[in-house]
Amino acid sequence: MNRLYLLHLYIVLLILNVFSPISYSLLIDAVSLPSPSGYRFPIYHASELGKPKFHKKIEEWVVELETDVVYVKFPIFKHGIVIANGDIIDEVLKARPEKFRRSSKIEVIFSELNINGAFSSEGDDWRSNRRVITEGVKGIDSKLIEPISQRLVDFISQSIDQDQDEFLLPELFNRYTTEVVSVVVFDFDPMYLQLGTLPDLSEKLLRILPLANKRISSVIPTHKIFSDGLSEIVLEVNGLLRNKIRSLRQLDENNKFLERCIKQEMDESHIIANAFTLFVAAQDTTALTMSWGLKYILEYGCLDNLRLLSGEDFKQQFDRLILESMKKNPVAPIIYLEANEKYTTEAKNDNGQNITIDKGMQLILYTGNCKDKKMKSSKFNKHRNFGGGMRICPGMNIAMDEICIGLKQLITHFNIEVINPGDEEGIFDFLVSPGDLRVKFSKIP
Ligand code: HEM
Protein backbone atom coordinates (compact mmCIF):
# COMPACT_ATOMS: atom_id res chain seq x y z
CA MET A 1 0.00 0.00 0.00
CA ASN A 2 2.73 2.37 1.00
CA ARG A 3 4.78 1.44 -2.04
CA LEU A 4 1.81 1.96 -4.39
CA TYR A 5 1.20 5.38 -2.83
CA LEU A 6 4.85 6.33 -3.33
CA LEU A 7 4.75 5.10 -6.91
CA HIS A 8 1.66 7.28 -7.62
CA LEU A 9 3.31 10.26 -6.02
CA TYR A 10 6.44 9.69 -8.08
CA ILE A 11 4.42 9.51 -11.33
CA VAL A 12 2.48 12.71 -10.45
CA LEU A 13 5.73 14.56 -9.70
CA LEU A 14 7.27 13.28 -12.92
CA ILE A 15 4.29 14.50 -14.97
CA LEU A 16 4.35 17.87 -13.24
CA ASN A 17 8.02 18.23 -13.95
CA VAL A 18 7.70 17.28 -17.63
CA PHE A 19 4.65 19.38 -18.43
CA SER A 20 5.40 22.41 -16.36
CA PRO A 21 6.82 25.24 -18.49
CA ILE A 22 9.44 25.80 -15.82
CA SER A 23 11.46 23.16 -14.14
CA TYR A 24 11.08 24.27 -10.50
CA SER A 25 14.19 22.53 -9.30
CA LEU A 26 16.22 24.83 -11.57
CA LEU A 27 14.68 28.12 -10.56
CA ILE A 28 17.02 30.75 -9.20
CA ASP A 29 16.19 34.07 -7.66
CA ALA A 30 18.11 36.88 -9.41
CA VAL A 31 19.60 38.00 -6.08
CA SER A 32 21.27 34.59 -5.68
CA LEU A 33 23.14 34.80 -9.00
CA PRO A 34 26.93 35.24 -8.95
CA SER A 35 27.96 38.85 -8.50
CA PRO A 36 31.25 40.60 -9.37
CA SER A 37 33.29 40.99 -6.20
CA GLY A 38 35.20 43.97 -4.84
CA TYR A 39 32.39 46.49 -5.15
CA ARG A 40 31.53 48.04 -1.80
CA PHE A 41 29.00 50.20 -0.02
CA PRO A 42 27.78 52.86 -0.75
CA ILE A 43 27.70 52.68 -4.57
CA TYR A 44 28.60 49.05 -5.28
CA HIS A 45 28.55 48.18 -9.00
CA ALA A 46 27.17 51.59 -9.93
CA SER A 47 30.78 52.76 -9.88
CA GLU A 48 31.19 51.13 -13.33
CA LEU A 49 27.94 52.36 -14.89
CA GLY A 50 28.34 54.51 -17.96
CA LYS A 51 32.16 54.56 -17.90
CA PRO A 52 33.95 54.66 -21.29
CA LYS A 53 34.83 50.95 -20.90
CA PHE A 54 31.58 49.83 -19.28
CA HIS A 55 30.92 47.40 -22.16
CA LYS A 56 34.32 45.77 -21.64
CA LYS A 57 33.74 45.58 -17.88
CA ILE A 58 30.54 43.62 -18.53
CA GLU A 59 32.50 41.17 -20.69
CA GLU A 60 35.09 40.86 -17.92
CA TRP A 61 32.40 40.06 -15.33
CA VAL A 62 30.83 37.40 -17.53
CA VAL A 63 34.18 35.79 -18.29
CA GLU A 64 35.44 35.89 -14.69
CA LEU A 65 32.22 34.56 -13.16
CA GLU A 66 31.77 32.03 -15.96
CA THR A 67 28.10 32.74 -16.30
CA ASP A 68 26.04 34.85 -18.64
CA VAL A 69 23.65 36.47 -16.14
CA VAL A 70 25.15 38.29 -13.17
CA TYR A 71 23.68 40.11 -10.20
CA VAL A 72 24.63 43.74 -9.54
CA LYS A 73 23.87 46.06 -6.64
CA PHE A 74 23.17 49.76 -6.79
CA PRO A 75 22.83 52.35 -4.02
CA ILE A 76 19.64 53.02 -2.09
CA PHE A 77 18.46 49.39 -2.13
CA LYS A 78 18.32 49.24 -5.93
CA HIS A 79 19.63 46.24 -7.76
CA GLY A 80 19.64 44.52 -11.10
CA ILE A 81 21.04 41.88 -13.41
CA VAL A 82 23.34 42.06 -16.37
CA ILE A 83 22.12 39.66 -19.06
CA ALA A 84 24.52 38.47 -21.75
CA ASN A 85 22.47 35.41 -22.68
CA GLY A 86 20.94 35.65 -26.16
CA ASP A 87 17.83 33.58 -25.43
CA ILE A 88 16.95 35.45 -22.24
CA ILE A 89 17.58 38.78 -23.99
CA ASP A 90 15.22 37.78 -26.83
CA GLU A 91 12.55 36.67 -24.35
CA VAL A 92 12.76 39.86 -22.29
CA LEU A 93 12.71 42.11 -25.37
CA LYS A 94 9.62 40.31 -26.63
CA ALA A 95 7.85 40.53 -23.26
CA ARG A 96 7.63 44.33 -23.60
CA PRO A 97 5.71 46.52 -23.14
CA GLU A 98 3.70 44.53 -20.56
CA LYS A 99 6.34 42.80 -18.44
CA PHE A 100 9.30 45.13 -18.96
CA ARG A 101 9.85 48.78 -19.80
CA ARG A 102 12.85 50.98 -20.52
CA SER A 103 14.54 51.98 -17.30
CA SER A 104 12.28 54.56 -15.64
CA LYS A 105 15.31 56.79 -15.15
CA ILE A 106 15.42 57.29 -18.92
CA GLU A 107 11.82 58.47 -18.98
CA VAL A 108 12.40 60.82 -16.04
CA ILE A 109 15.46 62.36 -17.71
CA PHE A 110 13.80 62.82 -21.09
CA SER A 111 10.60 64.17 -19.50
CA GLU A 112 12.58 66.75 -17.51
CA LEU A 113 13.98 67.91 -20.84
CA ASN A 114 10.52 67.91 -22.51
CA ILE A 115 11.65 65.43 -25.15
CA ASN A 116 9.78 62.34 -24.04
CA GLY A 117 9.17 60.77 -27.47
CA ALA A 118 8.99 57.20 -28.81
CA PHE A 119 12.32 56.07 -27.34
CA SER A 120 11.75 57.07 -23.72
CA SER A 121 7.96 57.04 -23.22
CA GLU A 122 5.84 54.13 -21.97
CA GLY A 123 2.21 52.95 -22.05
CA ASP A 124 -0.35 54.77 -24.21
CA ASP A 125 2.01 57.67 -24.71
CA TRP A 126 4.58 55.30 -26.25
CA ARG A 127 1.91 53.67 -28.44
CA SER A 128 0.91 56.97 -30.04
CA ASN A 129 4.51 58.19 -30.33
CA ARG A 130 5.60 54.91 -31.89
CA ARG A 131 2.71 54.97 -34.41
CA VAL A 132 3.81 58.40 -35.60
CA ILE A 133 7.46 57.40 -35.95
CA THR A 134 6.69 54.09 -37.66
CA GLU A 135 4.42 55.81 -40.16
CA GLY A 136 6.94 58.62 -40.60
CA VAL A 137 9.71 56.26 -41.65
CA LYS A 138 7.54 53.66 -43.41
CA GLY A 139 7.96 53.26 -47.10
CA ILE A 140 10.91 55.61 -47.37
CA ASP A 141 12.26 55.02 -50.83
CA SER A 142 15.99 54.25 -50.73
CA LYS A 143 16.23 56.16 -54.04
CA LEU A 144 15.92 59.31 -51.93
CA ILE A 145 19.19 58.40 -50.23
CA GLU A 146 21.19 58.05 -53.45
CA PRO A 147 21.48 61.78 -54.28
CA ILE A 148 22.67 62.43 -50.74
CA SER A 149 25.34 59.76 -51.05
CA GLN A 150 26.48 61.55 -54.24
CA ARG A 151 26.81 64.71 -52.16
CA LEU A 152 29.05 62.80 -49.77
CA VAL A 153 31.31 61.93 -52.72
CA ASP A 154 31.34 65.56 -53.91
CA PHE A 155 32.09 66.79 -50.40
CA ILE A 156 35.13 64.53 -50.12
CA SER A 157 36.30 65.27 -53.69
CA GLN A 158 36.10 69.03 -53.16
CA SER A 159 37.90 68.71 -49.84
CA ILE A 160 40.68 66.74 -51.53
CA ASP A 161 40.95 69.52 -54.15
CA GLN A 162 41.56 71.87 -51.25
CA ASP A 163 44.30 69.64 -49.81
CA GLN A 164 42.07 68.28 -47.10
CA ASP A 165 42.18 64.54 -47.66
CA GLU A 166 42.11 63.21 -44.07
CA PHE A 167 38.82 62.76 -42.30
CA LEU A 168 37.64 61.78 -38.86
CA LEU A 169 35.16 59.12 -39.96
CA PRO A 170 32.44 59.45 -37.27
CA GLU A 171 32.34 63.22 -37.89
CA LEU A 172 32.20 62.87 -41.67
CA PHE A 173 29.46 60.25 -41.52
CA ASN A 174 27.46 62.32 -39.06
CA ARG A 175 27.13 65.02 -41.70
CA TYR A 176 25.81 62.38 -44.07
CA THR A 177 23.36 60.68 -41.67
CA THR A 178 21.94 63.98 -40.37
CA GLU A 179 21.40 65.07 -43.94
CA VAL A 180 19.71 61.78 -44.83
CA VAL A 181 17.23 61.88 -41.94
CA SER A 182 16.52 65.58 -42.53
CA VAL A 183 15.82 65.13 -46.21
CA VAL A 184 14.06 61.76 -46.31
CA VAL A 185 11.95 62.13 -43.17
CA PHE A 186 11.39 65.86 -42.85
CA ASP A 187 11.87 67.14 -46.40
CA PHE A 188 14.28 69.83 -45.31
CA ASP A 189 17.85 70.20 -46.41
CA PRO A 190 20.49 71.31 -43.92
CA MET A 191 23.26 71.26 -46.62
CA TYR A 192 25.79 69.69 -44.27
CA LEU A 193 27.52 68.10 -47.23
CA GLN A 194 28.40 71.44 -48.75
CA LEU A 195 31.89 72.70 -48.18
CA GLY A 196 31.97 75.52 -45.65
CA THR A 197 28.63 74.68 -43.99
CA LEU A 198 28.87 74.23 -40.27
CA PRO A 199 26.89 71.17 -39.16
CA ASP A 200 25.33 73.10 -36.26
CA LEU A 201 22.34 70.84 -35.61
CA SER A 202 24.40 67.71 -36.12
CA GLU A 203 27.08 68.83 -33.66
CA LYS A 204 24.53 69.72 -31.00
CA LEU A 205 22.68 66.44 -31.43
CA LEU A 206 25.95 64.59 -31.03
CA ARG A 207 26.39 65.89 -27.49
CA ILE A 208 22.97 64.79 -26.30
CA LEU A 209 23.37 61.03 -25.82
CA PRO A 210 26.73 61.26 -24.01
CA LEU A 211 25.31 63.82 -21.60
CA ALA A 212 22.12 61.78 -21.14
CA ASN A 213 24.36 58.75 -20.49
CA LYS A 214 26.06 60.65 -17.65
CA ARG A 215 22.70 61.45 -16.10
CA ILE A 216 21.46 57.87 -16.49
CA SER A 217 24.52 56.43 -14.80
CA SER A 218 25.13 59.01 -12.12
CA VAL A 219 24.25 58.03 -8.57
CA ILE A 220 23.54 61.59 -7.44
CA PRO A 221 21.70 63.90 -9.85
CA THR A 222 24.43 66.56 -9.71
CA HIS A 223 23.02 68.21 -12.85
CA LYS A 224 20.26 69.58 -10.61
CA ILE A 225 22.85 71.63 -8.75
CA PHE A 226 25.57 72.24 -11.36
CA SER A 227 24.48 72.59 -14.97
CA ASP A 228 25.87 69.89 -17.27
CA GLY A 229 24.85 71.90 -20.33
CA LEU A 230 22.29 69.33 -21.55
CA SER A 231 19.17 71.42 -20.92
CA GLU A 232 20.71 74.36 -22.78
CA ILE A 233 21.56 72.19 -25.81
CA VAL A 234 18.11 70.64 -25.85
CA LEU A 235 16.49 74.09 -25.67
CA GLU A 236 18.59 75.25 -28.62
CA VAL A 237 17.86 72.15 -30.70
CA ASN A 238 14.17 72.38 -29.85
CA GLY A 239 14.18 76.00 -30.99
CA LEU A 240 15.77 74.96 -34.29
CA LEU A 241 13.29 72.11 -34.74
CA ARG A 242 10.31 74.30 -33.84
CA ASN A 243 11.31 76.80 -36.54
CA LYS A 244 11.88 74.07 -39.10
CA ILE A 245 8.58 72.39 -38.30
CA ARG A 246 6.66 75.67 -38.48
CA SER A 247 8.23 76.57 -41.81
CA LEU A 248 7.55 73.05 -43.11
CA ARG A 249 3.91 73.39 -42.17
CA GLN A 250 3.73 76.51 -44.33
CA LEU A 251 5.78 75.16 -47.22
CA ASP A 252 4.70 71.59 -47.66
CA GLU A 253 1.36 70.29 -46.53
CA ASN A 254 2.34 66.80 -47.68
CA ASN A 255 5.34 66.25 -45.46
CA LYS A 256 4.96 62.65 -44.34
CA PHE A 257 6.14 62.94 -40.80
CA LEU A 258 4.22 66.14 -40.06
CA GLU A 259 1.11 64.83 -41.75
CA ARG A 260 1.09 61.78 -39.45
CA CYS A 261 1.60 63.97 -36.41
CA ILE A 262 -1.24 66.24 -37.40
CA LYS A 263 -3.53 63.27 -38.15
CA GLN A 264 -2.87 62.00 -34.63
CA GLU A 265 -3.84 65.44 -33.34
CA MET A 266 -0.47 65.67 -31.70
CA ASP A 267 0.36 68.94 -30.00
CA GLU A 268 3.50 70.82 -30.98
CA SER A 269 5.52 69.74 -27.95
CA HIS A 270 4.88 66.07 -28.80
CA ILE A 271 5.79 66.62 -32.45
CA ILE A 272 9.05 68.22 -31.38
CA ALA A 273 9.79 65.43 -28.89
CA ASN A 274 9.38 62.85 -31.66
CA ALA A 275 11.29 64.85 -34.25
CA PHE A 276 14.03 65.14 -31.67
CA THR A 277 13.91 61.40 -30.95
CA LEU A 278 14.16 60.58 -34.64
CA PHE A 279 17.24 62.73 -35.09
CA VAL A 280 19.02 61.52 -31.98
CA ALA A 281 18.16 57.86 -32.63
CA ALA A 282 19.02 57.95 -36.33
CA GLN A 283 22.11 60.10 -36.56
CA ASP A 284 25.00 58.79 -34.52
CA THR A 285 23.93 55.12 -34.44
CA THR A 286 24.12 54.95 -38.22
CA ALA A 287 27.26 57.11 -38.52
CA LEU A 288 29.13 54.96 -36.02
CA THR A 289 27.98 51.71 -37.64
CA MET A 290 29.27 53.07 -40.96
CA SER A 291 32.58 54.01 -39.35
CA TRP A 292 33.11 50.56 -37.78
CA GLY A 293 31.92 48.95 -41.03
CA LEU A 294 34.39 50.80 -43.24
CA LYS A 295 37.20 50.13 -40.76
CA TYR A 296 36.32 46.41 -40.86
CA ILE A 297 36.23 46.31 -44.67
CA LEU A 298 39.60 48.08 -44.91
CA GLU A 299 41.34 46.07 -42.22
CA TYR A 300 40.14 42.73 -43.55
CA GLY A 301 41.22 43.66 -47.07
CA CYS A 302 37.76 43.17 -48.60
CA LEU A 303 37.78 46.35 -50.67
CA ASP A 304 39.08 44.90 -53.96
CA ASN A 305 36.69 41.94 -53.81
CA LEU A 306 33.74 44.23 -53.17
CA ARG A 307 34.67 46.44 -56.11
CA LEU A 308 34.37 43.47 -58.44
CA LEU A 309 30.74 42.90 -57.45
CA SER A 310 27.66 44.71 -58.64
CA GLY A 311 23.88 44.72 -58.13
CA GLU A 312 22.42 42.10 -55.83
CA ASP A 313 25.80 40.35 -55.40
CA PHE A 314 27.32 43.52 -54.00
CA LYS A 315 24.36 44.07 -51.68
CA GLN A 316 24.48 40.52 -50.33
CA GLN A 317 28.21 40.48 -49.74
CA PHE A 318 28.15 43.98 -48.32
CA ASP A 319 25.29 43.24 -45.89
CA ARG A 320 27.19 40.18 -44.71
CA LEU A 321 30.30 42.26 -44.02
CA ILE A 322 28.37 44.97 -42.20
CA LEU A 323 26.60 42.38 -40.05
CA GLU A 324 29.97 40.82 -39.23
CA SER A 325 31.28 44.23 -38.31
CA MET A 326 28.19 44.91 -36.14
CA LYS A 327 28.73 41.58 -34.44
CA LYS A 328 32.35 42.49 -33.71
CA ASN A 329 31.63 46.06 -32.69
CA PRO A 330 27.95 46.70 -31.99
CA VAL A 331 27.28 50.42 -31.53
CA ALA A 332 24.34 50.02 -29.16
CA PRO A 333 25.22 46.90 -27.14
CA ILE A 334 23.57 47.98 -23.91
CA ILE A 335 19.80 48.28 -23.41
CA TYR A 336 18.56 49.43 -20.00
CA LEU A 337 15.23 47.95 -18.95
CA GLU A 338 13.19 47.53 -15.77
CA ALA A 339 10.73 44.83 -14.67
CA ASN A 340 7.09 45.98 -14.43
CA GLU A 341 6.19 42.93 -12.35
CA LYS A 342 7.72 39.78 -10.89
CA TYR A 343 8.76 37.57 -13.79
CA THR A 344 10.36 34.16 -14.27
CA THR A 345 12.22 33.56 -17.52
CA GLU A 346 11.35 30.54 -19.61
CA ALA A 347 14.81 30.62 -21.17
CA LYS A 348 17.66 29.39 -19.01
CA ASN A 349 21.03 30.91 -18.28
CA ASP A 350 24.12 28.86 -19.17
CA ASN A 351 23.92 27.05 -15.85
CA GLY A 352 20.51 25.75 -16.94
CA GLN A 353 18.54 27.97 -14.53
CA ASN A 354 15.32 29.91 -15.06
CA ILE A 355 15.66 33.28 -13.38
CA THR A 356 13.12 35.02 -11.19
CA ILE A 357 13.29 38.78 -11.55
CA ASP A 358 11.64 41.04 -8.97
CA LYS A 359 9.36 43.93 -9.83
CA GLY A 360 11.39 47.14 -10.25
CA MET A 361 14.64 45.31 -10.83
CA GLN A 362 17.00 46.95 -13.36
CA LEU A 363 18.03 44.88 -16.38
CA ILE A 364 21.17 45.65 -18.31
CA LEU A 365 20.95 43.70 -21.55
CA TYR A 366 24.32 43.18 -23.19
CA THR A 367 24.16 42.21 -26.86
CA GLY A 368 27.90 42.40 -27.50
CA ASN A 369 30.27 39.46 -27.56
CA CYS A 370 31.84 37.99 -24.50
CA LYS A 371 34.81 36.70 -26.45
CA ASP A 372 36.58 34.29 -24.15
CA LYS A 373 33.37 32.71 -23.00
CA LYS A 374 31.95 29.74 -24.80
CA MET A 375 28.36 30.95 -24.70
CA LYS A 376 25.83 28.20 -25.00
CA SER A 377 23.25 30.47 -26.61
CA SER A 378 25.39 32.45 -28.95
CA LYS A 379 23.00 32.67 -31.88
CA PHE A 380 23.36 36.07 -33.40
CA ASN A 381 21.03 37.90 -35.68
CA LYS A 382 20.95 41.40 -36.98
CA HIS A 383 17.79 42.17 -35.08
CA ARG A 384 19.52 42.00 -31.74
CA ASN A 385 21.70 44.89 -32.86
CA PHE A 386 18.47 46.77 -33.33
CA GLY A 387 16.76 45.46 -30.19
CA GLY A 388 13.67 43.27 -30.49
CA GLY A 389 9.98 42.75 -29.79
CA MET A 390 7.51 45.59 -30.22
CA ARG A 391 10.14 48.18 -29.42
CA ILE A 392 12.56 47.05 -32.07
CA CYS A 393 14.33 49.88 -33.85
CA PRO A 394 11.90 51.27 -36.46
CA GLY A 395 14.80 52.68 -38.50
CA MET A 396 16.58 49.35 -39.04
CA ASN A 397 15.94 49.10 -42.78
CA ILE A 398 16.66 52.73 -43.53
CA ALA A 399 19.89 52.46 -41.56
CA MET A 400 21.06 49.40 -43.51
CA ASP A 401 20.17 51.06 -46.86
CA GLU A 402 21.85 54.28 -45.83
CA ILE A 403 25.05 52.47 -44.85
CA CYS A 404 25.11 50.30 -47.97
CA ILE A 405 24.42 53.16 -50.39
CA GLY A 406 26.87 55.57 -48.72
CA LEU A 407 29.77 53.14 -48.41
CA LYS A 408 29.26 51.77 -51.94
CA GLN A 409 29.75 55.28 -53.31
CA LEU A 410 32.94 55.75 -51.30
CA ILE A 411 34.37 52.39 -52.31
CA THR A 412 33.60 53.11 -55.97
CA HIS A 413 35.09 56.60 -56.07
CA PHE A 414 38.04 56.56 -53.69
CA ASN A 415 41.06 54.67 -52.52
CA ILE A 416 40.89 54.69 -48.76
CA GLU A 417 43.66 54.21 -46.25
CA VAL A 418 43.46 54.06 -42.47
CA ILE A 419 45.66 56.78 -40.92
CA ASN A 420 44.67 56.18 -37.31
CA PRO A 421 42.71 53.05 -36.29
CA GLY A 422 41.01 54.75 -33.35
CA ASP A 423 40.17 52.89 -30.16
CA GLU A 424 40.01 49.18 -31.05
CA GLU A 425 37.78 48.28 -28.08
CA GLY A 426 35.51 51.26 -28.59
CA ILE A 427 34.49 54.03 -26.24
CA PHE A 428 31.09 53.78 -24.58
CA ASP A 429 28.99 56.84 -23.93
CA PHE A 430 25.56 55.26 -24.55
CA LEU A 431 26.79 54.24 -27.99
CA VAL A 432 30.17 52.70 -28.74
CA SER A 433 32.41 54.85 -30.90
CA PRO A 434 35.79 54.03 -32.50
CA GLY A 435 36.98 57.46 -31.31
CA ASP A 436 39.78 58.99 -33.35
CA LEU A 437 39.37 56.80 -36.44
CA ARG A 438 40.96 58.73 -39.28
CA VAL A 439 41.22 57.78 -42.93
CA LYS A 440 42.77 59.29 -46.02
CA PHE A 441 40.81 59.42 -49.28
CA SER A 442 42.34 59.73 -52.73
CA LYS A 443 40.38 59.85 -55.97
CA ILE A 444 40.44 56.74 -58.17
CA PRO A 445 41.87 58.03 -61.48
C1 HEM B 1 22.74 51.23 -37.47
C2 HEM B 1 21.90 52.12 -36.98
C3 HEM B 1 20.99 51.90 -35.80
C4 HEM B 1 21.16 51.07 -34.72
C5 HEM B 1 22.32 50.14 -34.42
C6 HEM B 1 19.98 51.25 -33.90
C7 HEM B 1 19.76 50.56 -32.72
C8 HEM B 1 18.64 50.72 -31.92
C9 HEM B 1 18.39 49.99 -30.71
C10 HEM B 1 19.30 48.91 -30.11
C11 HEM B 1 17.22 50.43 -30.21
C12 HEM B 1 16.53 49.91 -28.95
C13 HEM B 1 15.55 48.84 -29.38
C14 HEM B 1 14.87 48.11 -28.26
O1 HEM B 1 14.73 48.65 -27.16
O2 HEM B 1 14.48 46.95 -28.48
C15 HEM B 1 16.71 51.44 -31.11
C16 HEM B 1 15.53 52.12 -30.91
C17 HEM B 1 15.07 53.12 -31.73
N1 HEM B 1 15.62 53.51 -32.96
FE1 HEM B 1 17.32 52.76 -33.78
N2 HEM B 1 19.15 52.16 -34.47
C18 HEM B 1 19.72 52.59 -35.65
C19 HEM B 1 19.20 53.50 -36.56
C20 HEM B 1 17.99 54.15 -36.42
C21 HEM B 1 17.40 55.02 -37.42
C22 HEM B 1 18.00 55.32 -38.80
C23 HEM B 1 16.22 55.49 -36.88
C24 HEM B 1 15.17 56.39 -37.49
C25 HEM B 1 15.05 56.70 -38.75
C26 HEM B 1 16.07 54.91 -35.56
C27 HEM B 1 15.02 55.16 -34.70
C28 HEM B 1 14.84 54.52 -33.47
C29 HEM B 1 13.75 54.80 -32.57
C30 HEM B 1 12.65 55.86 -32.77
C31 HEM B 1 13.88 53.91 -31.47
C32 HEM B 1 12.96 53.79 -30.27
C33 HEM B 1 11.94 52.66 -30.52
C34 HEM B 1 10.99 52.40 -29.36
O3 HEM B 1 11.38 52.51 -28.22
O4 HEM B 1 9.83 52.07 -29.65
N3 HEM B 1 17.15 54.09 -35.32
N4 HEM B 1 17.59 51.59 -32.15
Protein architecture, described:
This protein has 445 residues and is of the alpha+beta class. The chain has one domain (3-13, 31-443): Cytochrome P450 (Cytochrome p450, Orthogonal Bundle), CATH 1.10.630.10. The chain contains 15 helices and 13 strands. The protein has helices at residues 2-19, 54-65, 86-94, 104-112, 123-137, 146-161, 169-186, 200-217, 230-251, 256-263, 268-299, 303-308, 311-328, 382-385, 396-413, and strands at residues 27-29, 69-74, 78-83, 100-102, 166-168, 334-339, 343-348, 354-357, 362-366, 414-421, 427-428, 432-433, 437-443. Strands 2-3-9-6-4 form a 5-stranded mixed sheet, sandwiched between helices. It has a 3-stranded mixed sheet with strand order 1-8-7, covered by helices on one side. A 3-stranded antiparallel sheet has the order 5-13-10. The relative contact order is 0.18.
SSE inventory with pairings:
Elements: H1 2-19, E1 27-29, H2 54-65, E2 69-74, E3 78-83, H3 86-94, E4 100-102, H4 104-112, H5 123-137, H6 146-161, E5 166-168, H7 169-186, H8 200-217, H9 230-251, H10 256-263, H11 268-299, H12 303-308, H13 311-328, E6 334-339, E7 343-348, E8 354-357, E9 362-366, H14 382-385, H15 396-413, E10 414-421, E11 427-428, E12 432-433, E13 437-443
Parallel strand pairs: 1-8, 3-9
Antiparallel strand pairs: 2-3, 4-6, 5-13, 6-9, 7-8, 10-13, 11-12
Residues 93, 118-119, 130, 133, 137, 181, 277-278, 281-282, 285-286, 289, 331-332, 335, 385-388, 391-395, 398-399 line the site of protoporphyrin IX containing FE (HEM).
